[in-house]
Amino acid sequence: MNSPNRGAPGGATPDPSAVAAAREALPPTLVVLIATEEEFDWDAPFDRAATSVRAARELPVGQRIFDQFGVRATYLCDYPIAAQPEAYEPLREVLAGGTAELGAHLHPWVTPPFDEELSRANSFPGNLPEELERAKLESVTLALERNVGRRPRIYQAGRYGLGARTPRLLVELGYQVDASPSPAFDFSAEGGPDFTHARREPFFHPAVRELFVVPVTGAVIGFLGPRAPHWYARASRPAWARWRMPALLARLRAAERMRLSPEGFELADLKRLTRKLHAEGTRVFTFSFHSPSLMRGGSRYVTSDAELARFLDRCRGYFDFFLGEFGGRSITPLALRDEYAGHGVATTT
Fold this sequence. Notes:
By secondary structure, the protein is α/β, with parallel strands linked by helices. It has twelve helices and eleven strands. Helix 2 (59-69) runs parallel beside helix 11 (305-325). The longest helix has 21 residues, at 305-325.
């Protein structure tokens, strides 16, 4: 098992002030995460039999785009991907090129052992009893190690369902990076975590210092400026939401909740979000999507050939913008952890 202190001088995590200073010196840095998972209907009840992985055969298509732009992508794979040859064979192909990284993703409803009741609350892995969360983490970890030939060290909870015990469990299983937090998004109405006020920049976990946290990039922005998150939160309350106030604020560009993803957002949105956050001091940007979006009909965002073409064009357009016009670079979460642990000496990739 790899040491969770990889990259930290003497096995210690760096002083927070040193990390803050190093962060300011970073060039615009892009982390790309693909939640590599089965296809399923996000609006239907959770189904243990929904384990189709046909979209995995399209992973090389995405990887060719990443390689074209020099993007260092991380494939966060769940149990149906790790356990079925139809999925893990194309995954091994894209990893063999040496430019991509492996991580793990946990959908509890399709990951053994199946000891929990199927429910929305239990779809967030951090809500499970500790021993059951651990057992499911072990299942996906060992399946990837057995069938892909690598032990993952990067994790993202399915549905961003991070729990209070999850960081400690991850370190005990040899993980070094957690990419579960989703700033600006609140899943508490379904029993999940509330990341409304979560920090956007990477950091070493304050309670489990060996674990490096790389949040998914998201924010509420708009002409209301610093008050935009406040007004978006108020508009999202049931009394206002039934009048579609969040949509109205977004159309007016007063307060828009955005995630740095080609799913549901246009290229102009992604550029606008990036420029806004960079002006506010953000240096690390996490671009993310779900692997079924690489296949026509694989997700709600890609239901036709035309939508697939536009989806792939958004990816190309954003990479061209970030790594060209914006002067950025691409890096894996593990390499970024090494930079932070080494007091952030940035190197080009």
